[in-house]
Specification:
This protein is of the alpha+beta class. It has six helices and nine strands, in the order αβββααβαβββαβαβ. A hairpin with a 6-residue loop joins strand 6 and strand 7.
Length: about 230
């Protein structure tokens, strides 16, 4: 998946390197749309130096909707594919874990699996957490971003927040690498039900003590690891 910011350079890189040994028809590129950026809590639009509305990519959560709209996931299923792996280009070492996590996913018949690593308490890395509803009606195993994790754990788990157990060095909650494995048949069925539309959020950095003005233009975004929110 590419965006307006990365599409041309990605195509250039692939063509200049003969698709790194792949056939061109083995590579499918899906481009996400940019969305308007805002500069304050009133959602005032950011304007660039040329007088146009500033835009930014909507986030990698768009991959689910793009795989649905393009029917690429359904195509892969029709070709007999059974599993699908997501990875990010910023984490090349994650490829080493794919054979093992694919085997684990198959042996346990998991609809979705997240590859995790140990993380230190307070480390700036999202963590995999099991969230239980207060009324006991269900639970959700999902990534919680590091800027929300400590306050959540203080409120619901431990007054010390994101801490490790006595005698241990790592957090109870493992770090999310955004290497995700999906069972394709169930994934395609869920896309038909939901369209693959991931809930949005906004994560501004504020420039003033009143927390009303953003340091830089901020947009609504979505994350691919929030896919469990689309499940029953």
């Amino acid at each position: 998946m590419v965006s307006d910011d990365t599409n041309d350079r990605t195509v250039e890189l692939l063509e200049a390197n003969n698709y790194f040994g792949l056939k061109p028809d083995q590579v499918t590129m899906l481009k996400q749309e940019n969305v308007p950026a805002m500069i304050d809590n009133t959602a005032k639009l950011a304007i660039d130096e040329d007088g146009f509305i500033s835009t930014k990519p909507h986030g990698h959560g768009d991959i689910h909707n793009l795989l649905f709209d393009s029917q690429i996931a359904a195509k892969w299923l029709s070709l007999g594919k059974q599993w699908m792996v997501f990875l990010q280009d910023t984490n090349a070492l994650a490829c080493k874990a794919i054979p093992a996590v694919l085997g684990v996913s198959r042996s346990h018949n998991l609809e979705m699996n997240s590859v995790c690593v140990q993380r230190k308490p307070g480390e700036a890395m999202g963590a995999i957490v099991k969230l239980n509803r207060d009324d006991g009606t269900g639970s959700l195993t999902i990534n919680v971003e590091y800027n929300q994790l400590h306050s959540l754990l203080v409120a619901k788990w431990n007054p010390k927040g994101d801490a490790c157990k006595e005698g241990e060095h790592y957090s109870t909650f493992p770090g999310n690498t955004n290497t995700l494995v999906f069972k394709l048949a169930e994934y395609v069925e869920n896309l038909k039900r939901t369209g693959g539309v991931i809930p949005e959020f906004v994560n501004p950095k504020y420039a003033n003590e009143e927390r009303t003005v953003f340091k830089s233009p901020t947009r609504l975004e979505c994350m691919m690891q929030d896919y469990p929110k689309l499940l029953d």
